[in-house]
Structures are given as structure tokens and as C-alpha cells.
Amino acid sequence: xxxxxxxxxxxxxxxxxxxxxxxxxxxxxxxxxxxxxxxxxxxxxxxxxxxxxxxxxxxxxxxxxxxxxxxxxxxxxxxxxxxxxxxxxxxxxxxxxxxxxxxxxxxxxxxxxxxxxxxxxxxxxxxxxxxxxxxxxxxxxxxxxxxxxxxxxxxxxxxxxxxxxxxxxxxxxxxxxxxxxxxxxxxxxxxxxxxxxxxxxxxxxxxxxxxxxxxxxxxxxxxxxxxxxxxxxxxxxxxxxxxxxxxxxxxxxxxxxxxxxxxxxxxxxxxxxxxxxxxxxxxxx
Length: 285
Ligand SMILES: [Zn+2]
Ligand SMILES: [Zn+2]
What we know:
The chain is globular and about 50 Å long. The chain has helices spanning 38-53, 113-121, 127-135, 191-196, 279-283; strands at 16-17, 22-23, 59-64, 74-82, 85-92, 95-103, 166-167, 172-177, 184-185, 188-189, 217-227, 239-249, 252-260, 266-277. The strands form two sheets. It has a twelve-stranded antiparallel β-sheet with strand order 1-2-4-5-6-3-11-14-13-12-8-7, with helices on both faces. Strands 9-10 form a two-stranded antiparallel sheet. The protein has five helices and 14 strands. It has one domain: Beta Barrel (Porin), CATH 2.40.160.210. The protein has 285 residues and is α+β, with helices and mostly antiparallel strands. The protein is 16% helix and 32% strand. 46% of the residues are buried. It binds zinc ion (2 copies). One zinc ion binds at residues 31, 147, 150, 152-154, 200.
């Protein structure tokens, strides 16, 4: 099995140097203004997991412990905990920044069949949903300016994915996505962007939906994903991102999201827990 996505080989998008075991996120992989993107961090768990296990992985889990350093060297430790699972910790002299594990074993589902079916049923839009998508006008929120350069969702991120899902029902956000050729790994969409694409795309609706007030913002706390199949790079009809905010419980918000084929076949499913913070804290202050 080869694993050679952009972040795992030399170049401007390089993050992991497997010889020196140094991990360093270039500025372009920011989330908040001065720290790394949580989806990229989660994707790196997948990259390292696939490389360390030497086989395709089907489950990953990540936990963000503190702001992920940008343009500053980190290193990683890993341990094969079961034949199919590797646990990984990434950090620097200040301690771990994020930890997680990757596994070939996907026997424990991360979301109910009903949730998968609900997301999948929205991969293809009815005329009514498409109208709602096309007529949606985005409102600014307290984090709009701070996250304008976010690698995943930032409209001003020059090298970013610029993914801005819009509501198609009161609870579902949706986007059609052509990742282009940049992220191809072994004729498939590389794991890192496939996973990162399911990060803040699930959080874009928090203010609009009323899960956050104008005095609040949110940061990724943890992310679990099932990789059913690496998506084709550029399927006819594009990939479909379908997200739902499930609930808020005090300082936590739970989201379900998936990357689907244009007919609703799931490729990657993600379940995130977000931590409610002040806009200043989200900014990194
Ligand atoms: Zn990689
Ligand atoms: Zn973002």
C-alpha cells in the first residue's frame, strides 16, 4: 500500500517528515488566525496511522488538547496498541497538542444507521432543497473575520479548500465539492483533505441555527471518522458534503457529517464534538 498524499511528501504542503519524525504545519493549514486547523490535525492522525500500520485504515479518532502550533516543529510518538490499532500523540516541548488513534477495525459504528440514512438521503437535492441552497444569503457572525483564512472554510484562504456548505433544510447543510487534481493519492482523494473537509463545514451553521449566540464561538474538541472507502478524486457530479448539527449540551455541540457520492453512497462519515468558547478564545487570545 502506498501513502503519499501532499502533506506526506516534500513541497509547500509538506507537513510530516517521516525520516526526522518532525511535523510542522505551514501557515496555510491554519484554522484560527494563529493556530492549526483541527481537521488537518485529525487528517494527520489518519496519515500517520495509515503509514505506521502499513495498510488502509477504516477508523480514526482525534482529540485536540490545545491550540495546534503553526510553523513550529512538533514531533510524534506512536504505539501499536492492538494488532490493528495505533495510538499517536503529537506535540512539542509544551506537551501534547493533539492525540488520537487509527485502526483497520471499523466494527464499532460511529453513528446510527438512521443518521447515515438521513445524511445520505440529502446527498441528492430535491428542487425545493436546491432552491433553498441557491437562494441562501450568508450572514456574518462573530467568527467570520477571524476564520476568513481558515484552510477548510475560509473564503480568503488562497490555498484552502474554501468549503461553505449552505442550508437545504432547517437542520441539514449541504455542498457539492470538486476537489480538483491537487489532492490525488493513488487515484483517490487523499485521506487528509477527505477528513479535513468534514471539520468546520459542520460548524458553519451554528449561529444561524441558534446553537451559538453572538457572544459565542466554537472550537473542535474531538473528531471520530469512519473511512468506508477513499473517495474517487473527481466523480461525475462531484462529491457531496452533508452535515447536521445534532444537539448542544451546555458547552458542547455535537455534529454528524458525511462525504458522499452524488447518489448518496457514503465514503467518509464524521462525528465531531465542539467546545463552545468566546470569540476571543476562538481567535487564540
Ligand atoms: Zn498523508
Ligand atoms: Zn474553518
